[in-house]
Amino acid sequence: MIFAKREEYIKLRDEVRKFNLKELAPVADESDEKESFPLDVLRHAAGLGYVGPHLPEQYGGMGDYYAKAVVYEENCRVSFGYNLSLNASDLIFANNIARHGSEEQKQKYLPGIIRGEKTGCWALTEPDAGSDALSITTNWKKDGGDYIINGRKTFITNAPIADFFIVIARKPGSTKAEGGCAFILERGMQGLSTGKPFRKLGGRCSPTGEVVLEDVRVSRDQLLGKEGNGFKDMFASLDVERAYTPLSSIGIAQACLDEAVIYVKQRKQFGQYLSEFQLIQEKLAVMSAELEVARHYVYNLIELMVRGKRITKEASIAKLFASDMVNRSAREAIQIMGGYGYMREYKVERYFRDAKLLEIGAGTSEIQKLIIARELLK
Ligand SMILES: Cc1cc2nc3c(=O)[nH]c(=O)nc-3n(C[C@H](O)[C@H](O)[C@H](O)COP(=O)(O)OP(=O)(O)OC[C@H]3O[C@@H](n4cnc5c(N)ncnc54)[C@H](O)[C@@H]3O)c2cc1C
């Protein structure tokens, strides 16, 4: 965790924290309640360099993956849903363009995302293909120099509001990791439509929905990476996504601990502050210990990733442990606050709902266990 202690990142963390307290915190509960994304906040954040700081400088970023980690954790401490949508746009969509795109594609798509003017999404999951990602049936075929894409994607973060889409499709008849292609699609292209936002348990200000593709015809310019390499590129990028995802757990768990610590110093029962009961102290101590262990591991993981190490097993360990940790932490925060914690007026109710997605999205906990075991046994 060497980088997280460096002065420049402490300064950045303090600045983002100040910005989030002023701009994001006041709208976090309302945007969750209304299920609407706080786009104004994102645009303002973009103006300060908090969108896509990891993306290359020539397109408007800072080329700094550590800065991305600092911003990510701070955002999740205030609004997980806000960061979920931002992440789909500047990390998953844009990072795939930065890693696998042509120079023209980078110039066309990255600056608008970094400036917060455009929103991206990344679409793999289908109604019948979730954990078993290679079983997707969305397909492409060639027609002259063009590609024609058909299929249906679901559970796609930002789909209802996105300007740009990366869609993963396979060649009919191809199997396993062969025949995959990633296409960059744009709203307004003939045959592409999106559904209404789904109603969800948590991350409610982040719109999630379907993408429907009916004979979408695109030229070769819209192919991302090499024809047939779609799945291989996807697996390489997924490690980066999985390295950051645990920071969501850390941000939410920190917020749970913060709320609980404040509360126990104010609430009295049996003539004593809750903070004086050792059973309550034990809960706080365990929450804090597990959080710090997870934070330390995840920041080290980010360093390994930046140094170009293979992090498949470590990213899965981080995601598995941190998502389990935050669900325990959110449950304990509510327990510490009793009936008040269960009420919507208190933020821990939202944190508890938000935490659940971390055991499902970007690969479920069961799938992380399978990956860890596969890596151990090979
Ligand atoms: C809010 C939200 C946002 C999302 N955003 C995106 C997005 O932007 N883009 C995108 O492409 N997808 C997105 N997803 C989809 C997400 O990645 C999938 O939901 C996830 O991968 C699980 O797939 P599934 O829901 O189909 O569950 P399934 O794969 O049907 O799994 C159901 C259960 O079975 C278990 N299971 C499955 N296979 C095995 C196995 N081999 N061994 C043991 N247990 C197993 C799972 O762990 C799980 O507990 C999002 C999902 C949600 C809820």
Features:
alpha+beta; Butyryl-Coa Dehydrogenase, subunit A, domain 1; 4-stranded antiparallel sheet; 11 helices; globular; binds flavin-adenine dinucleotide
Give a quick rundown of the structure.
The chain has 378 residues and is an alpha+beta fold.
CATH topology of the largest domain: Butyryl-CoA Dehydrogenase, subunit A, domain 3
First-last Cα distance: 29 Å
- The percent range for strand residues is 15-25%
Assign a percent range to the helix content: 40-55%
Which regions have little confidence, pLDDT < 50, spanning 5+ residues? none
Specify the overall morphology.
globular
Q: Please give the radius of gyration in angstroms.
A: 21 Å
CATH C-level class of the largest domain is Mainly Alpha
Strand order of the largest sheet: 1-4-5-8
In CATH, the homologous superfamily of the largest domain goes by the name Butyryl-CoA Dehydrogenase, subunit A, domain 3
Task: Name the hetero compounds present.
Answer: flavin-adenine dinucleotide
DSSP strand count: 10
Structural class, from secondary structure content?
alpha+beta
Helix-strand pattern: HHHHHHEEEEEEEEHEEHHHH
- DSSP summary: helix tally: 11
- Largest sheet composition: 4 strands, mixed
Task: Give the domain tally.
Answer: 3
Per CATH, the architecture of the largest domain is Up-down Bundle
Task: Give the overall pLDDT as a whole number.
Answer: 97
